[in-house]
Amino acid sequence: MGPTKVAIGTIAAIFFVRQFRDKNLTGSFMFDDKVVLITGGTGSFGRKFTQTLLNRYKPKKLIVFSRDELKQFEMQQHFDSREMRYFIGDVRDKERVMQACEGVDYVIHAAALKQVPAAEYNPTECIRTNINGAENVIRAAISKGVQKVIALSTDKAACPVNLYGATKLASDKLFVAANNMAASKTEFSVVRYGNVVGSRGSVVPFFKKALEEKHESLPITDPEMTRFWITLQQGVEFVVKNFSRMKGGEIFIPKIPSIRLVDLVEAIAPGMPTHVIGIRPGEKLHETMCPQDDSHLTLEFRDHYVITPTIKLFRKVSFETNNLGEQGKAVERGFSYNSGNNPDVLSIDQIRNLHEQANI
To answer: What is residue 182's predicted lDDT score, i.e. its pLDDT?
Structure first.
């Protein structure tokens, strides 16, 4: 086996090979006979999560909560098993969220306004969905006795320079602090990761569309720009596993590779000319997932990092050992995990190989 396949296999193994062993480690099939709700469930993550859950577990119900009836109709054509439920609703509507959480065991909060330029031009709308919506999910989960909640975050929430990142940082803080709600037995954690390969609105579909339209060159923002890179399936696997790991209050961050933007272009369109358009408002040259200022709170595990709460929780929690028995250790003071200093950088061939595995 060549070095490219070995490297990609190593990346994938973290998320895929141990899936059945994880079930044994938890002592049960975590989602079997459980009611699971996913907000924003018609998005890329929601569809892949639904596919994974139905293939691997036997949930009592899987509730897809979103505001787009057309996307729900289209999703229902693919996922129409007896476990599926489709709720039209918006996370801004606290009463509807409360209804959706009735009898629910686990919640994945994936609903968000995610487009950086749209958030800059429509700040109040972004705040209402990403911050007020997060609060509604928290209150509903506590009120209805949900066992566990995982909220999806983004690398843009670390040291944010745009409104989208700022709202997601606020959301992260809300979910961590929710573990201190009086008399609440619900556990809340956050999963933070980087760019998802080929997801809706990402750069890969944009480049491919430009190629289909016979553009003479592809636009890049900066030749030095880097990004974290993760497949949709890897993101789903990481979230699923953290339901077993979590104690409540953690921000989970996977160890994933980085790519250089110029290498991505070469992988997609070998020899294609590029032109530099400059960094757009709200963009960074490199994305951060573990900020330097949080180094005193950060633990390193074999295949992920955990940022522990900045506040003291009412209940005594030790995060050095998670619920799967995995051991973590404190990172050095001043440690930062960003796409520019990440030692794991994909080559052009590795990017190509990963995209083939992800069917992009």
So the answer is: 64
CA distance from start to end of the chain: 23
Catalytic residue (one of 148, 156, 255, 284): 156
- The whole domain housing 184 covers 3-196+230-254+292-342
Residues facing residue 258 across a β-bridge: 228, 345
User: For residue 192, which of 228, 226, 162 has the smallest C-alpha distance?
Assistant: 228
pLDDT tens-digit series, residues 283-311: 899 999 999 999 999 999 999 999 999 99
- Confidence class of residue 22 from pLDDT cuts 50, 70 and 90? very low
**What is the number of helices (H) and of strands (E) in the chain?**
13, 17
CATH number at residue 20: 3.40.50.720
Q: What is the pTM of this model?
A: 0.90
Q: Are 184 and 178 in contact (CB under 8 A)?
A: yes
Q: Is residue 71 flagged as an active site residue?
A: no
More reliable by pLDDT, 14 or 157: 157
Cβ pair 93, 128 in contact under 8 A: no
